[in-house]
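DM from R.C. (forwarded with permission)

"hey, sorry to bug you on a friday — could you get me a structure for this? deadline for the figure draft is monday and I only need the backbone to look sensible"
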Amino acid sequence: MTLPRLAKGALWVTAIVVVIVGLYLSVFFLPYPLFPHHLEQAGFSVYSDREVPEDFELVLEDARFRLEGMELYRGAAPLRIFVCRSQGLFVFINKLAGKGRGGQALVISVAGNAFFSDQIIEAVGWRNSGKPAHSRLAGSWSAAIAHEVAHDLVYSEVGYRKAREIPVWISEGYADYSTNLAPILADPEYDLRSRIRILRDDTFWRHPAGMIDRSHFRWHLLVEFLCSVKGLGFADLMDTAVTKEGTQADMMAWYSTETQ
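My reply, with the result:
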């Protein structure tokens, strides 16, 4: 094969690789063709592969309410919301990202895009009958959106690399606590001790995925205890002296004292 033919073949291979990489990246950075339905509300840009779910405007208003109660929220533009009403599309995007089937959402922080599974969010609410309230287990669309924005705010605050080093119980617990702080403060009947009683009730966690749900709920309560009872802020949570075991012991000691 002559040199010109080799060069031409190399150009074709390069072009094919560029096209493939471009298509791959476009799914995460420019996915708009896959989501032709659009809604602007409460400062959010929403795109959906099918008709936007009914009353989604109310979902976005509640999500905004949750964001405004977050310590790290300073009015920054929230993530763009991509609603996957087709579970097949959500699974496809997750697999492209190397995440398997995924959970309720997939966030591409560098692109400012968040992909949500309508089916999984609804399934979580159905499985748990909306309980416990003010938690990720309730299956709330607005909470799911605010939860991912909370993660994104942490990335912006400390940088992606340091955010990846945060222990999962703090990372997930803080996102859940931040997401539900505004509704908690607005609920006159809310009581942290009653939430700890739920955590301790083995019969409550016998449903499918109960162990996973219980862990997430525990992380939420641990961070809530540190912030609402001990008075810690986000910067304090980043202190390496804050441990899950120590916080658990402190929380249960506080709970035992308060319930005597």
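R.C.: lifesaver. The chain has a mean pLDDT of 87.
me: no worries. The first strand starts at residue 37 and ends at 41.
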